[in-house]
Amino acid sequence: MRSRSLALRTSLVAAFVIALVAGFLAFHQLRDPLVQTVSIHLAQRDLAAAFHKRRLNFLVLGIQADEGNSDTILLAHLDLDQRIATLVSIPRDTWVAIPGHGHQKLNAAYGIGGPALTAKVVGTMTGSHIDSTIAIDPVGAKQIVDAIGGINIDVERDMDYDDNYGNLHIHLKKGEQFLSGGKVLGYMRFRHDAESDWGRMRRQQQVLHEIVKELGEPQNWTKIPRLIAVARKDVTTPLNDAQLQALVELYRGVPPDNVRTFTLPGRGAFVGDASVVLIDDWWAKIIGELVCSATEPPQNVVLVANATGIPDVTKTIVGALRGGGWNVQTSIEEPTRAASEIVGNDLAAHRLADDFSGFSHRSGKATVLRLGVDTRPQT
């Protein structure tokens, strides 16, 4: 039973986030660009009036109410003016301090204090203010993918796994193929390779992008009201229906590139007999500072230079910068160097020097954020 509910939960989180950030509520209006523009402006006005800001941070949880925990945790930053959504996946087994309950896995916070306590823990970990929460307890998530007729997935390897007790049977061949809801659930649930939970989060992000792409096809616009109706009944959130509708209206029709995803960096470890994920405190805070900032950064061009010797750092830092609205057009890999630095004289360079307060700052014609070995995750 747990295997099925976790699969459904994971699918619905992705599907509902897409319904928020890339839905098409009034599909009949899409043929009229003027009506669409007015509708977007009204949605921006309503959301800004409700939250008194134009850059919002939500915590999206896929929960298992009967066991009192959350299996999927997404920190979502929404830029209302630019219509960009940045989703940061946080490993559910992240080892955190839960107020009054010592150190536990992050997914335990929901059973102790619900979405509010989970948001408090994530906010403390990332240094971010979270404006609202969305908790999803799916019942019919398989129908979400089936409602749009399935999606195209490039399966990266052969996948074969059978769990008769949990009624989970995954049999997929490597290569691009069109998958129904049940097959997509299996693809996202697969954890029996070297990537384990990290692969599960990567595949969830991949599926999310494919749903955005599929919803962008005109022939699928008429399916969106049904998709939203299926998702809405399984959602607990302080947001009212008007606010949810405004979010959907604002983000309908955005290009897939406007929905950005990456995973909070960390590594697997053991605390006693418990398998956990350890997150580097500096990285958690700097990602929160960059992604979830309440103010738009200067728009001078920033070059990211990765001299850490760890290629994955580039995706993480570029994703965080772009998610926060920074103008990062390119990045480069450099030979390793010990110390990080900021180079440049413009407003962006000075803002970066404030955000990365421990970095040296020197003058230069171009603005460069150079990450050295001193920023390698210390987990």
Please supply descriptive tags for the structure shown above:
single chain; 379 residues; alpha/beta; Aminopeptidase; Alpha-Beta Plaits; six-stranded mixed sheet; five-stranded mixed sheet; 11 helices; 38% helix; 26% strand; globular; disordered N terminus
Structure description:
The protein contains eleven helices and 19 strands. The radius of gyration is 21 Å and the shape is globular. The strands form six sheets. The chain has a six-stranded mixed sheet, sandwiched between helices. Strands 16-15-19-17-18 form a five-stranded mixed sheet, with helices on one face. Helix 1 crosses helix 6 (196-215) and helix 9 (281-291) runs parallel beside helix 10. Helix 11 links the parallel strand 17 (341-343) and strand 18 (360-362). It is of the alpha/beta class and 379 residues long. The chain folds into two domains: 2-264, Aminopeptidase; 281-375, Alpha-Beta Plaits (2-Layer Sandwich). It is 38% helix and 26% strand. The protein starts with a helix and ends in an 8-residue tail after the last strand.
